[in-house]
Design a protein that fits this description.
The protein is of the alpha/beta class. It folds into two domains: 203 residues, Rossmann fold; 173 residues, NAD(P)-binding Rossmann-like Domain (Rossmann fold), CATH 3.40.50. The protein is built from 17 helices and 14 strands. The strands form two sheets. An eight-stranded mixed sheet has the order 3-2-1-4-5-6-7-8, sandwiched between helices. Strands 11-10-9-12-13-14 form a six-stranded parallel sheet. The protein is globular, with a radius of gyration of 24 Å. The termini are far apart. The model has no long low-confidence stretch (mean pLDDT 95). The chain binds uridine-5'-diphosphate-xylopyranose (2 copies). One uridine-5'-diphosphate-xylopyranose binds next to α9.
Amino acid sequence: MKLAIQNIVCIGAGYVGGPTMAVIADRCPSIQVTVIDRDPARIAAWNSATLPVFEPGLDAVVQRCRGRNLHFLPQDQGLPALQAADAIFIAVNTPTKLVGDGAGKASDLSFVEACARYIAENAAGHTIVIEKSTMPVRAADAIKRILQTNARETSFDILSNPEFLAEGTAIRDLEKPDRVLIGGERPEAIDALAEVYAQWVDPGTIIRTNLWSAELSKLAANAFLAQRVSSINAISSLCEATEADVDQVAKVLGSDSRIGPKFLKASVGFGGSCFKKDVLSLVYLCEFYGLDAPAAYWQAVLDMNEWQKRRVGLAAAKHAAAYARRIAVLGLAFKKDTNDFRETAAIDICNHLLAAGFHLSLHDYRVDSAAFARQLSSGPDASLAFARSPEEAIRGADSVLVLTEWDAYGQLDWAALRATCGQAPAIFDGRNIVNRLAAEKAGFTVHCIGKA
Ligand code: UDX
Ligand code: UDX
């Protein structure tokens, strides 16, 4: 029996669900796509002029399809769409478990399981249920069990179709993906989803696997990427000790076609909702299967990242401590071109500096300052202010800490800024984007990652 997908529902209107469904609707005008979410405020934002996710190119895509074949609805109004759906994507968050077995490492699947129950109770006819969220290997078993316990006249296929988009480039990644991965059991179900993607993606880039390979590939891909950042960051500290230059070393490494040039940028440490959570999940899985050495290997990727964040923060603190103890922090997002600050290095570093008694002046182009302040452990009396511009943040500072690689931070006029700073200002460039020559000429001491 050939399956065809005409109606799609996605549960979860977050950083993954929203942009992914917008691109599917844009590229497949004959498919009706409905995104539902239990948070009505988030849905209201998707239906407004200010989308809840900042992503270059997203506004235009949403404007083209919203109301045509892309609909955002609160979950309690989404029942008719769910009943009509041929395919339901699960794109809710899968955070690290805080309590119970595997707390601190394993992924919390309670939201996913709640979705599966909701689908089991409400879907009609035959439905393809698609894991879009990152799941631990064999999570599909749990979903299958829940779907099979309902006694109604329904049937299901389960597919794993993990998302590889990176924030800041999500629309480009979705429109021209390196590959689309579909894992499943029945070829008919895999073909049905592949036909959706084939409307705009080169069919040769669609990789079909079994369910477990697809689930594990997503975890492994993120772990490999995180490991690359930790590897270059480990080398960066050695560069500083030996007068080697990490950008030069990265260029040499990257010119070996077996290594490749991407993802070799030394930094203040990786952040984001995925890398830490997914590597922890991998560590937990290894431990669960008694694989101690692989568990320790992946744990070291995270340990290295923590060490890198700490040492950059400590260097800025050491310098500012000798002067008036004011630090400007430029960049709170975990990378440029996003408003997302989950697991960003800025949270740990700001917490550390506030606890050490420094006054912080914070700036970012997209991060919501009140939401960021709520993530800090220092409470409402913390000595911090949010500036409207990098220039305002830097005024009166002894140390300037650059934590996100927003392009505009690379173009600051350090000669003009010098007069507004403390007596011997230093810049700690956690992204190696500051115009070092100009800043040094203006009288700043500049410390870069992985450079003498
Ligand atoms: C996604 C993935 O799902 C996660 O597994 C992956 O590793 C990172 O990306 P993301 O889109 O970033 O998560 O999460 P988030 O922006 O938090 O969005 C999740 C949405 O699901 C939220 O809007 C939340 O309200 C919604 N949700 C959550 C539901 O609608 N129902 C639930 O039961 C739980
Ligand atoms: C990642 C994966 O890239 C994506 O495929 C997956 O679907 C979700 O997780 P994301 O976390 O959005 O995407 O961004 P990514 O570009 O991977 O960056 C992650 C972190 O690593 C950022 O903090 C970034 O600044 C840092 N990074 C990245 C470096 O420090 N150096 C690099 O060379 C690359």
